[in-house]
Amino acid sequence: MEQTTPITDDEILTAHHGGKLAIAPTAPLDTLRALSIAYTPGVAKVSRAIAADPKLAARYTWAHRLVAVVSDGTAVLGLGDIGPRASLPVMEGKSALFKAFGGLDSIPVVLDTTDIGEIVETMVRLRPTYGAVNLEDVSAPRCFELERRLIEALDCPVMHDDQHGTAIVVLAALRGACVVLQRPIAPLKVVVVGAGAAGVACARILLAAGVADVVMTDSKGVVHSARDGLNPVKVELAAITNPRGLTGELSDAVVGCDVLLGLSGATVPEEAVAGMAPGGIVFALSNPDPEIHPEVAARHAAVVATGRSDFPNQINNVLAFPGVFRGALDAGARRITERMKLAAADAIAAVAADGLSASRIVPSPLDPRVGPAVAEAVAAAAQAEGVTT
User: Fold this and answer.
1) Is 99 a catalytic residue?
2) 162, 75 Cβ separation under 8 angstroms
3) Spatial distance between the Cα atoms of 101 and 318, rounded to a whole number of angstroms
4) Residue 47: what pLDDT?
5) What are phi and psi of 76, to 5 degrees?
6) What is the chain's alpha carbon radius of gyration, rounded to the nearest angstrom?
7) CA-to-CA distance for 309 and 298, rounded, in angstroms?
8) Which residue among 20, 39, 45, 60 is the active-site one?
9) Which are the contacts of 243, defined by CB distance < 8 A and separation ≥ 6?
10) Phi then psi for 260, rounded to 5 degrees?
11) Is 94 among the residues known to form the active site?
12) pTM, rounded to two decimals
């Protein structure tokens, strides 16, 4: 783990001065001839060609390789509903990561509305401008409907990274932990703390990966079919999780469980982790404050991970989303499927395989092998599934 000196507030604010993005031309503009080719009069020939055959836009513009990073600012990091302007630094950062780790251009689109219909209509109107949509920091449960409606309305890849990027990396990390502990993944008893965007997506991908016993908890305890007041998403979750019919509080659910997956910002007491089965796995992913401090969790669990870079085993979405979108766009995929997400998780786990240990169950976010490996796996999955144009 890289050791650094403490980062000061002034250092952070100075680094963000003027924003983190800029546009650079790919064609020379240093002579009158070059200017005439890149802009007027030469550009008119390109516009006429696209007008005659709209498919040529994919060849002569950046739109088919451009990712729109879209947010309404309603669930920004752990800061909550801080609005679109305050969310923009995060979206700029996301765009910078797309370029650095996926080689993709992207542009932040922060919208001054929380109306799902208005957001969908806006993105439909902007469709000629971009080739894929990365939804970011949209509050639950609205994020589920927004993603679903955008997928239905658009003919390009759409993914809510807070859901699926998290889920992909969690599955990759769990695979790594299971190899270290020499345990199969399917029989694990998993308790998910938090039934929001990330929790729901993680539960679904774990079920798709063959984990049969997943129990969801929220602020009111175990999510189960007999509980009153469940929203439609939790009703659906209750029907496919909790096979042992557990009820009660988090403390009841974790007794004897193998995996505790924290995605809530809640506090998990040490006594709860102590009640897990021997050789347990704890992923305390809330940022900046994990549900339980990793040093405390390590007293009782065999493998511990967080979402922070200053502890071992950082489970970070940057391991997933750049390669997922790169692979989808490379393949000309119309959408991002569950099979593509599972392929991404397997690719991340494979990169980590040559140096696995209890303190290294996923690759470093700076490992240059990750993005290309994920992109290749996702593209292959898209082609095998027949979702490419």
Assistant:
1) no
2) yes
3) 8
4) 96
5) -90, 115
6) 22
7) 17
8) 39
9) 212, 213
10) -115, 115
11) yes
12) 0.93
Both structure tokens of 330: 């490379």
Tokens 């000309």 map to which residue?
A: 332
Q: Which amino acid is at 23?
A: I
Q: How far is 123 from 133, CA to CA, in rounded Å?
A: 9
Distance CA 37, CA 46 (A): 10
Neighbours of 58 (CB within 10 A): 15
**SS3 for 267-300, per residue?**
CCCHHHHHCCCCCEEEEECCCCCCCCCHHHHCCC
Q: What is residue 57's three-state secondary structure?
A: helix
Contact (CB, 8 A) for 287 and 314: no
Residue with token string 């996926």: 102
Query: Which own/partner contact pairs does 75-84 have at CB distance under 8 Å and 24+ positions apart?
Result: 75/137, 75/138, 75/139, 75/140, 75/143, 75/162, 75/197, 76/137, 77/137, 77/287, 78/265, 78/286, 78/287, 78/288, 78/289, 81/139, 84/110, 84/111, 84/112
Q: Which residues are 192's β-sheet partners?
A: 216, 261
Please identify which of the residues 94, 189, 234, 341 carries the catalytic annotation: 94
What pLDDT, in 10s, does the model give residues 365-376? 899 999 999 999
Residue that the structure tokens 């969908």 belong to = 120
Write out the two tokens for 322: 């750049």
Token pair listed for 18: 């003027």
Burial 181-220 (b: 16+ CB within 10 A, else e): eeeebeebbbbbbbbbbbbbbbbbbbbebebebbbbbbee
Query: Helix crossing, 83-102 with 321-331: angle to 10°?
Result: 70
**Residue whose token pair is 């007999």:** 226
Residues of the chain with pLDDT under 50: none
5 CB-contact burial (10 Å; exposed 0-12 / middle 13-18 / buried 19+)? exposed
Write the pLDDT tens digit of every residue in 128-160: 999 999 999 999 899 999 999 999 999 999 999
Q: What is the DSSP string of 163-175?
A: HHHHHHHHHHHHH
Cβ atoms of residues 317 and 161 within 8 Å? yes
Place of tokens 């800029």: 22
